[in-house]
Amino acid sequence: MMTKVEAVIQPSKLDAVKDALLAIGIDGMTVLEARGHGRQKGHTEFYRGREYTVDLLPKIKIELVIPAERTDEVVKAITEAARTGKIGDGKIFLSKIDEAIRIRNDERGPGAL
Amino acid sequence: MTNVVPVPFNEQPARPVAPNYDELPMKELYRRGSAEIQQKFAENRSGREAIESRTALVDEVIHRLWNTHLGSSFPKGVAVVAIGGYGRSALYPHSDVDLLFLCEKQETPELKAKIRALCQELWDMRMRLSPTTKTVDDGGRFDPSNTESTIALLDARYVAGEAQLADYLRTKIIPSVIVRESQAILERLIEINNERKGKYANTIFHLEPDVKDCVGGMREFHLGCWAARIHGLLGENVWINPLHYVRTSVRGQTEQAVDFLAAVRCFLHYRSGRDDNKLSWDAQEEAAKSGVGGEVLAPAEWMRAYFRNARALDRFANQMVEMAASQRPSLFKQIQSWRSRASNADFTVVNGRVRPQQPMAIDDPDLMMRSFEFVAEHGVPLSAAVEHRIEENVPLLQEQKIDWWRYLGSILIRPFAGDALRGMQRVGLLTLIFPEFANIDALVLRDLYHQYTVDEHTFLAIDAIHRLSDSQSDWESRFLALLDEIEQPELLVLAVLLHDVGKGTESDDHVRTGVGLARKQLRDIAIDQRDVETVCFLIANHLEASLAMRRDIFDLANIRDLSKRVGTQDRLKMLVLLTYADIKAVNRHALTPWKADNLWQLYIATANFLSHSVDEERFHANAESEQLARIRLLTPQLGKKLKRFLEGIPQRYMSIHSAEEIAAHIEMASRVSGNGVQVKLNRQGQLFLLTVAMQDRPMIFCNIAGALAAWGMNIVKADAFANGAGMVLDTFYFADQFRTLELNMEEWTRFHESISDVLSGKIQLETLMKRRRAEAKGPKATIETKLLFDDDSSSRSTLLEVITPDRPGLLYEMGLEIAKLPCNIEAALIDTEGRTAIDVFYLTSEGKKLDLDQKKRLQTMIATALATKG
To answer: Is B803 close to A48, i.e. CB distance below 8 A?
Structure first.
């Protein structure tokens, strides 16, 4: 079994999260530049009389697929590295993955990760 | 043109003799011969020898097969001609072998069968053969839809069969079709070339370049050779050795580049066992480690050599195409878009290339530099001949005293500054002015992020600044607005030019080293000291905004740090634009809209912090700083007055004034006695600067603004500060729209006196206002007036930000309403951008922030005043 981990974090925490995952031997991931908000709503800036509403805040989304038995330690590594304790720290979503296939050699299952 | 020696086409370079394996079967001969060539290449790494040896080997095989299959049956009427790379005697280990069977007449079934048998044997040897059969008449026929087949004939070389027939093709048929169809052939050649370059984004710089087809790849050499041969046939009807058309220095560079790339390409073919020309990341490391193309080098240094050679081939090809196309001027519209009929008294644009009106005059350094100014303005390159002439003269300039900044400053602000700087680099002028630039020439930062060499990255960053005006996207046009507001854009571009020079040293800290190098170089070209400081500030901080973006861009501490670092709005704008350009020039995808928007948010937050935190951050004279030490050095006579003056003054005051200016202000303040006023008037470029020092009292700011309005002066920028002891130091930059001061020196004294008199109460402002000059009419701006109150940014004052159409007397009118409330202006930041006034007032009433009622009243009063008089 495998788990897909999707973590939405503060951009400033990307390096810390990458380092934390590397420290537990996870070195493959997809990083996406994203915008969004949860309970942490945006704010409005005025600049020269113009209103700039920042309702979608810059975020980084990390995606990785891991063997299911490593889920807890990966989640722990991400939360500890990304946490500031303030609103807007982000979220982690977990889902089950049926199969992984390495295109180069057709290898399947956790070995393809 | 010198050094042009026409040589007969059939004078091929001497080739190594193929190994003699008389007794061996053909297949084995080819296999052993190929293995020996590979072995030899592994030993000596000579690509040229390998490709010529393979050509000789294939020649030998074809000779034998000819004798076996056709020689006895067809002693006349058929010839085997090599074309493509084989024709050029440059057969790479796994390249196709292009063969033309040239027949006097249409091929008979017997001939067809024998040719097929010959080809079959070659295929059986696993040779990648591309055969074509043509009659001599076919060779002379031009097919517009297949121009490539005619271009291929430019490489034709006799291999076997009837030599006279092949000679007839070379001496009669090909010259005839080339001369007759030169326009179409050149057009197609340029078109194919543009398509190829477009596929590689028109740059030689790729992380994993294709050494055959990439810009600067071996194809450039072929293109240059084809163009040169067409030129030779058109002009003198002779086959020309293309390298004889170029000067000795360029010829040497071209030959060296061909040797280097030939070795690399052979290495790649042998490495992968196929026709693979991609110089992958791993291949770069292996090639560098085994000294392909020269000596064993670190991968980054080896890639530096690759890019220098690619640049040489690109230059060769461009020169040859320019030369060939000069016989067909209409082709220039294809080489580059015709930008203008931009001729002037000194320069003319002929066939899309800049030439001086007096060719020999280019030896004059003044005209030489102005030629690059012309390139920077129009984006049209110098002709190859002019570039060569300048290149030869550059060493002679070393001993001359030239005011480089006078020209360079003018080049940097022009739209095609990047092109002009690339040209200056090619001829050695850029390194003559900035010797340290040589250290970053073709310097490779070998990672998967930096696509370009450091010098090209620098030029692209300059392009990024100037191309902002072409931008179609909203997020880029915001940055364009900042560029328009910078007071000295040439300093920004100069900082971009020098921001990475530190990377060319062994230092671990390229920023700190870069500042040191830049300071020395700027001193050498005699730039004003204040400007040197601005450029060095930008270089020293060019990574700071990027670092701030890696933290939380909405975090107040982060914003405060960046604000402290930049100090002024102008420096912030320059730093943001430098960051924008620096990121954009890393690779084609580095500046995503996401990142650009984050940079913009960071800018807004910092700009707002700078204008909204003036009275929060105050200077304490006891805190030692470099600036304080410098002021003390400049004014040793002031002693304790220095600390008295600076204590409690807003930090922004310290940021926007140099140590020299502050020293002068302290001198002024020290002369203020009682109710006295010290006034100083200076000219600063297009504007005048009025500085006033006096003890605080009501209406000072309003009275100065009113007095300036009465004189018809238009206030562009102003800052009002007071220290802890109530000493006011106000500065007003204004435009003399009626040229009163500019044309009448005696008016300076009267102006000076009238400001002093208004401030000391000797005359009433109203008296002066009655003499107010008629206002200059300007285009009416459609800018909506906005008044915004902010009680959060300052712990002591209420901020009032006013955005409104600018007009003479505006500041006085607003100041009057503020005074009427009554409330006190603790600090003021007055700015004008285009026809918009952007003013921030720090207001208190009886030492406190304004209450709700006061804010409402003030809003109504100012809005009414602006609506009535606007």
So the answer is: yes
Cβ-Cβ contacts under 8 Å for B661 (sequence gap 6 or more): none
pLDDT digits (tens, 9 = 90+) for B337-382: 444 456 787 888 877 788 888 877 888 999 999 999 999 999 989 9
Residue A6: φ, ψ to 5° = -120, 115
Query: Which secondary structure element, helix H or strand E, spans residue B96, and what is its range?
Result: none
Write the residue in B608, B784, B801 that is nearest to A45 by C-beta: B608
Give Cα separations from B579 to A36, A102, B547 (angstroms): 25, 39, 10
In angstroms, what is the C-alpha Rg of chain A? Answer: 17
Tokens of B232: 């030779």
Q: Does B595 touch chain A (CB under 8 A)?
A: yes
Q: Of B235-249, B620-634, B636-650, B752-766, which range is least confident?
A: B620-634
| Torsion B598-B475-B716-B733 (CA) sign | positive
Contacts of B552 in chain A (CB under 8 A): 10, 12
ipTM field? 0.80
CA end-to-end span of chain B, whole Å? 68
A52 in contact with B, Cβ within 8 Å: yes
C-alpha to C-alpha distance for B40 and B51, rounded to whole angstroms? 11
Q: Please give the span between the terminal C-alpha atoms of chain A, in angstroms, as a whole number.
A: 12
pTM over 0.80: no
User: Residues B783-817, buried b or exposed e (16+ Cβ, 10 A)?
Assistant: beebbebbeebbeebbbbbbbbbbbbbbbbbbbbb
Cβ contact, residue pair B554, A57, below 8 Å: yes
Q: Rounded to an integer, what distance in angstroms lies between the CA atom of residue B277 and that of residue B267?
A: 9
Whole-angstrom Cα Rg for chain B: 36
Nearest CA in chain B to A35: B594
DSSP H or E run through B330: none
Residues of B in contact with A49 (CB under 8 A): 784, 786, 788, 801, 803, 838
Quote the Cα angle for B196-B197-B200, to 5°: 100
Q: DSSP strand E in B737-814: where?
A: 786-790, 798-805
**Which residue, among B125, B101, B136, B97, has the nearest Cα to B115 in the 3D structure?**
B101
Handedness of CA B560, B562, B567, B570 (dihedral sign): negative
Element (H, E) at A100: none
Note the pLDDT tens digit of each residue in B196-205.
988 888 889 8
Q: Nearest Cβ partner of A12 from B551, B595, B803?
A: B551
CB B187 within 8 A of CB B324: no
Do residues B607 and A47 touch, judged by C-beta distance below 8 A? yes
Name the CA dihedral angle for A99, A103, A105, A108, rounded to a multiple of 10 degrees. Answer: 0
Q: Residue B328: which residues within 8 A CB-CB, separation 6 or more?
A: B182, B183, B186
Query: Which residues of chain B make contact with A8, given a CB cutoff of 8 A?
Result: none
Backbone phi and psi for residue B681, each to the nearest 5 degrees, phi listed first = -125, 130
- Beta strands in B201-352, from DSSP E residues, in sequence order: 347-350
Closest CA to B815 of B866, B754, B756: B866
The crossing angle, in degrees rounded to 10, of helices B556-566 and B569-584 is 100
How would DSSP label each residue in A44-89?
Answer: EEEETTEEEEE-SEEEEEEEEEEEGGGHHHHHHHHHHHH--SSTT-
Q: What is the DSSP string of B620-645?
A: -TTS--HHHHHHHHH-GGGTHHHHHH
